């Protein structure tokens, strides 16, 4: 089969090769991959700035993949040939806390990912793709969309009517606007671009703040909420912005620190934190049961993933390059293009 | 002011009178009532089959009322004159558990209700009416709609993608279809009428079961859910139907026993209950904080209350009679008609 | 190895045999059993009144076993040879809900149990025995003690200071007294025997009610709690007693219906249920993660399992007969006796 | 009556005076104060470093007071004359979130506190003193002890068997050792003094770390927990210590930032936070319902408050001075001394 392998750090070490189709064990399934999507994490792995010590070259990168089951192990009861499935990144995190003595194993990092014609998945690390989604759409979910669901639903116990602040319009933030508004929340979005804020409104944001016009955006948030603040903040900036986020919160509000932030060193004024009785919650994707819940929910709520550009399998490097320079929505590789 | 007073049990003892406008204390507001809606509870009070021992004649009946603030007590900070507000039935149940030593005080029963031109409400037992609702619409919420929210959100912690079974198309059940589907749940509705099931679909039900065609409707529920069952049942039948409800549940599912049921004596097979690890939860409306949450949510999610007939203030007895014989949707009294 | 096999229903079909030591797969461990304890469930299985349709003869009965790891599968990382371990009854219920499409597999029923010199356990269906417990003590935990923890902690979210009603002094109830009081609850116990009530006090009960002297024990509970009622009831009676239990509850209290009750048909007055906003929760043991939590907790809190009689391996039938006629505390079989 | 009033910032502006006994309104009680205890907060108020803008001179300081009810308002049903009661600091925070539009009102700051012979309390801001406590003991609870309960129980949902790290042996930390171990947790305490660590063990700590001997105490925590880390940290240091706290946590562990810390500016590495999926929770005492729960719990669990020195009413300034220079345990003023 055809596959892209990362042989060392650096995009020039991503090589297309021909290798044998992988074999599955009794608890695994073999999936014919139809589409994968990229995340910042994937580019960080290639560049050696994400868990470099855990990686063993060569390996097949990219965690987010959708396709069709073509073979099942003898113990597998959940899936059958022909089922449309999507990968779950943390292959051994089923529910609750991961098993105490095991590290989290991750597709496209410590375990081979989806950038190959066929891919091995554990029965317990796979979900059914949402019924009305194409594989291209389903491939956008496992990291960027699911982390929003995991934050708001599993940690945040979000209720319709809650207020959610979304920073910017990156891949996670676009999904945050869509998911939070589909769950009945009132969404406030910040950006430096009025054009992007217009798009944010089309995607479900009720209120928007151009932080160039309002550098004190946290005060603007308080103003837009009649001094009540927001219950949830999907934090993707970090650094000194955390202090502003605390000011924008409602009493007992939640800041979800999600994945890679622009600035991973935050200065937090603990007095503000305790006066607000605020919570800062670190989040790194989520567990399999919640991803199953999310995919089941997508059969009921309407989320139309925003896709910037679709590349072909042979254009994998162009896809990475596009991801690195930024996009409005997801970068996808369509294996049938 | 004009008011209807109940002087003794029986609808013939409901009398329209002229009395002085009531006075408020420091923590209360005076509301000019624009609309009230009726519930089975209101007719049961008139007929003396609901908490008759707690009632002291005469009193003004009906718990659900919407209108405009015309006067505020000196301690009141939450409301100002002109605010559009709706009543909360349990006037002393603010949050969590009611205060241990206090009975629950209820509008239109132990405390004067809304069937008068002006009405006294505690600041802590009043909510802002949803912004986009008329007073007629808002008056339908405090009992029939809110009890569904309280069940599914406060007790059931419902998530988008959950499955909800709604029995029949009475007042509570119609709201259950609308609220559950607006929260992203998959709704299954039962009825003996195909016509009503069609309406249920229009209101948001994904799947329907005519229990005349399928007396074993619990098996039909399992079939429609691929053998998984439903996470939530809004139980309005009771009696031997509870046993069927348990069979229709998913593992660890919830049955919410809501208000007056057709049959208040249930025979429960405890073996089925424990094999399913099921929960039966008694529910009697809810507390003020959750009603505030619900009204806030209604600014974000679209619920268009189904109203069967609107009567004028002078037609109050006709409204009661209509409520007693049954309706599809709510019976409302519009004070400005 | 020596083993007891059940060849058909009836204690006379329990036969001691010699068979080969079982083999383990990659994810399993082999345990040298040192002690097993009996539950009502074990006698019900022998008598064919518990899940008879799921059983396939012959099989080795009894779910609760403690011993020492003597062999581990190649994938096993959690345990090593020499570790002291205890079995977890539901071998495929790891956490949250069991996997949707799998039935619950249970040791000593659909899977071979512990009444043999060696026993195969899944790595994920085994826990470390509490450090300070003998194997005899640890073998009493998996059903009778754990179901109390699962009820009060996982479902009931018990807090120190809560009030717990325990009915009688059977195996589960004795553990309920000990566990609830160790968790800081105030325990009220009922019995028809003053002598047993004295023992209940020694085990941690704060207050006791002889229900022969007080047939209206639910009123006595209200009196002993200043009219507040109890937050939790460990229900082991069922039938018409459920109605009394509801009366004994605090507002929003919980009744845990645990395992086999004296009377599995309950008549529930739903009006009482909803006026109290009470919950009836069916419970059937629990999942592996919670059993791990419980064993970890036993290293910190002092629970000294009450053991009525210890039999030798060859006396297995006498142990069953004792269990069938009732005991104060657990019946254990010590393989080294 | 005799009272101490703060007339301006600075301890020299704390003056003993004679004033009229205060009057109560319908929802209040008058309490004859028997004992008050001091917290760091009280000294910070005197020194003008805690909410100085909200204060209006003169006022009676100190939030934590216990005594006896001598008069009740006409609406008061919960208390009667002669009841032994303790104050709750946030007088308008009853449960859940404080009312949206109200600031938190605090005894001894925006509302007169307990340093006077008689004190006015709202019925809803008072709890019954634990039955077996003297007033001296009960007066130690409202801030330093309760904040630990609120953190571990309300936010942390602590279970027996959880691991708790307590930093140092200040007033809050001593209570944290006692409360966490009484709730069945395994407690690890750090200190620079072996002598204090010995006392910590006597109070319930299972394991101790001298951070002078082990400057990398976070690694020592991991070692003492077999690499699992602790589920809860009662954080009283702040600053760069937060980074170490994150390293000491278990996966999905909780850091409670409680009240005044040594260093209120924290530098948090967000990558560590998200890899651990850790939570940092700001906490500032708690609400009335939880304080009632805590006092009820103290009737069941044994916590013997550690009291450093008891002063007389006339020695109030000496008490403040002692509190300012530090103590092992609480500083109390006994009005009957």
From TrEMBL, chains A, B, C, D:
Name of the protein in question: NAD(P)-dependent alcohol dehydrogenase
InterPro entries: ADH-like_C, ADH-like_N, ER, GroES-like_sf, NAD(P)-bd_dom_sf, Zinc_ADH-like
Pfam families recorded: ADH_N, ADH_zinc_N
Domain Enoyl reductase (ER) intervals: 10-333
Residues in coiled coil: none
Source species of the chain: Staphylococcus nepalensis
Top-level taxon: Bacteria
């Amino acid at each position: 089969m055809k596959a892209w392998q990362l042989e060392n750090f650096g995009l020039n070490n991503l090589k297309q090769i021909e290798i044998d189709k992988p074999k599955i064990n009794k608890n695994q399934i073999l999936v014919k991959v139809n589409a994968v999507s990229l995340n910042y994490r994937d580019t960080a792995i290639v560049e050696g700035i994400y868990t470099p010590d855990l990686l063993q070259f060569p390996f097949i990168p990219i965690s987010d993949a959708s396709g069709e089951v073509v073979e099942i192990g003898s113990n597998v009861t959940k899936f059958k040939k022909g089922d449309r499935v999507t990968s779950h990144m943390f292959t051994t995190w089923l529910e609750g806390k991961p098993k105490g003595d095991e590290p989290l194993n991750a597709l496209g990092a410590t375990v081979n990912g989806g950038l190959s014609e066929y891919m091995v998945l554990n029965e317990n690390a796979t979900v059914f793709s949402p019924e009305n989604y194409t594989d291209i759409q389903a491939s956008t979910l496992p990291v960027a969309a699911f982390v929003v669901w995991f934050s708001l639903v599993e940690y945040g116990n979000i209720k319709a009517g809650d207020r959610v602040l979304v920073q910017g319009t990156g891949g996670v933030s676009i999904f945050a606007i869509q998911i939070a508004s589909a769950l009945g929340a009132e969404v406030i979005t910040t950006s430096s671009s009025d054009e992007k804020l217009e798009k944010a409104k089309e995607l479900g944001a009720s209120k928007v703040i151009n932080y160039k016009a309002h550098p004190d955006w946290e005060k603007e948030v308080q103003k837009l909420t009649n001094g009540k603040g927001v219950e949830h903040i999907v934090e993707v900036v970090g650094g000194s912005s955390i202090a502003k986020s605390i000011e924008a919160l409602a009493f007992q509000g939640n800041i979800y620190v999600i994945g890679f932030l622009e600035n991973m060193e935050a200065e937090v004024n603990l007095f503000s934190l305790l006066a607000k009785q605020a919570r800062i919650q670190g989040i790194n994707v989520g567990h399999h049961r919640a991803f199953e819940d999310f995919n089941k929910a997508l059969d009921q709520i309407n989320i139309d993933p925003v896709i910037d550009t679709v590349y072909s399998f042979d254009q994998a490097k162009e896809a990475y390059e596009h991801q690195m320079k930024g996009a409005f929505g997801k970068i996808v590789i369509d294996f049938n293009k």
